[in-house]
Amino acid sequence: MSDQNGKALIELRLRDGAQLYNSLDPFPFREGDLAAEAEEYILDWARDLPKDRPIAIVIHLEKPDTHDRPLPDLAATITRWFAGRASAETRALYELFRDGRLALMIGFAGLAACLFLSWLLTRGQEGPFARVFQESLIIIGWVVIWRPAEMFLYDWVPILRRRKLYRRLAEANVEVRLPKQ
Questions:
Q1: Nearest Cα to Cα of residue 31 among 39, 22, 44, 40
Q2: pLDDT of amino acid 32
Q3: Is 27 helix (H, G, I), strand (E, B) or coil?
Q4: What local confidence, expressed as pLDDT, does residue 3 receive?
Q5: Is the Cβ–Cβ distance between 34 and 41 less than 8 Å?
Q6: What is the phi-psi region of residue 6: left when phi exceeds 0, alpha when psi lies from -120 to 50, beta otherwise?
Q7: Hey, is 73 helix, strand or coil?
Q8: Neighbouring C-alpha atoms within 13 Å toward the C-beta of 116
Q9: Lowest mean pLDDT among 12-16, 37-41, 116-120, 151-155
Q10: Are 45 and 10 in contact (CB under 8 A)?
């Protein structure tokens, strides 16, 4: 679905603005956490939208604000929430690569130890038992290096995908539409 400006559109229909927030959050509006259901709804829709178009979020409220309970700044809340999530993904990526470097050093040390032990313990030995022992140590060495390789080859891709989605949502144009009087 698209709006008039060609932006990919996500629409939410709420009774009131408080429905967007986590009910257990002690800060109900200005710095409040988005409700998990609201976040998941927005993310589900955003994942299906075209990746090459900016996002617009339209919130339809059934009830306008009252004097005792003013309408919170829903647009700022949504964009700030997803900007925070994008920052968290950036930190997760940094931590993944930091942990990956440590795991790689440990993995190479383990691989080297297994290769050295394989050479040392089967030196001058012939026969099937020596060959099985040698191959077993080599396999163990490669298994030790498997996780660091996986971290650097594959684990960063979903983190980048989520960060890109969160950044798109943080930059979204959010509009709140009140009921017509």
A1: 22
A2: 66
A3: coil
A4: 57
A5: no
A6: left
A7: coil
A8: 6
A9: 12-16
A10: yes
Residues 6+ apart with CB under 8 A from 72: 17, 18, 21, 28, 29, 30, 32
Work out the end-to-end distance of the chain between its first and last CA atoms, rounded to an integer number of angstroms: 27
Q: Where are the alpha helices (DSSP H) in 17-127?
A: 36-48, 74-122
In the DSSP assignment, the letter for residue 34 is B
What is residue 2's predicted lDDT score, i.e. its pLDDT?
Answer: 59
Query: How many residues are there in the chain?
Result: 181
CB 79 within 8 A of CB 174: yes
Tokens at residue 67, please?
């004097």
Residue 175's SS3 state is strand
Q: How far apart are CA 45 and CA 49, in angstroms?
A: 7
Rounded Cα gap, residues 179 and 172, in angstroms: 22
- Strands in 8-14's sheet, in edge-to-edge order, are 8-14, 55-61, 173-177
Question: Taking Cα atoms as reference points, which of 81, 84, 24, 33 lies closest to residue 57?
Answer: 81
In angstroms, rounded to a whole number, what is the distance separating the alpha carbons of residues 110 and 146?
Answer: 11
**Tally of CB atoms within 10 A around 68:** 5
Q: How far apart are CA 172 and CA 181, in angstroms?
A: 27
Q: For residues 94 and 86, give the distance between their C-alpha atoms in angstroms, rounded to a whole number.
A: 13
